TrEMBL record:
UniProt record similarity statement: Belongs to the plant rapid alkalinization factor (RALF) family.
Signal peptide: 1-20
Protein name: Protein RALF-like 19
BP-aspect Gene Ontology terms: calcium-mediated signaling; regulation of growth
Gene Ontology MF, one: hormone activity
Alphabetized PANTHER family for the sequence: PROTEIN RALF-LIKE 19, RAPID ALKALINIZATION FACTOR-LIKE
InterPro entries according to UniProt: RALF (IPR008801)
Taxonomic path: Eukaryota, Viridiplantae, Streptophyta, Embryophyta, Tracheophyta
Domain of life assignment: Eukaryota
Location (main, coarse): secreted
Cellular compartments annotated: Secreted
GO cellular component labels: extracellular region; plasmodesma
Protein keywords: Disulfide bond, Hormone, Secreted, Signal
Keyword Disulfide bond: yes
């Protein structure tokens, strides 16, 4: 049973390798992998891969720009959204730690009786 599974895996690896092999320009049959990349059975040169990566990152950038919660400043290259250490990216402006302040009343037990 184990030998059958190993045989199937070996055949599958052989098929994937055969799909990805590139024939030399002279037709000699030499394969080279120095400037080509095979991803999911599709062989792409490094120049084409760079173009695909740049287009996909541009599309990703446009998609993120359409969202409401990411600003254009956050999409700029080489910029830090909040330069203040330890602060959240979403709330970078200096504020008080707890801005909520309730009034003093009988219910909160801080009301003084002055009678």
């Amino acid at each position: 049973m184990v030998s059958k599974a190993c045989l199937i895996v070996a055949l599958l690896a052989l098929v994937v390798a055969a799909e990805c092999n590139l024939v030399d320009d002279l037709g000699v049959g030499l394969t080279h992998f120095d400037d080509n990349t095979c991803i999911t059975g599709h062989c792409v040169s490094t120049d084409e891969e760079f173009l695909l990566d740049s287009f996909s990152s541009e599309a990703t950038r446009r998609h993120l720009a359409q969202k409401r919660y990411i600003s254009y400043n956050a999409l700029k290259a080489n910029s830090v959204p909040c330069s203040r250490r330890g602060h959240s990216y979403y709330d970078c402006r200096p504020q008080r730690a707890n801005p909520y302040r309730r009034g003093c009343s009988v219910i909160t037990h801080c009301y003084r009786f002055t009678n």
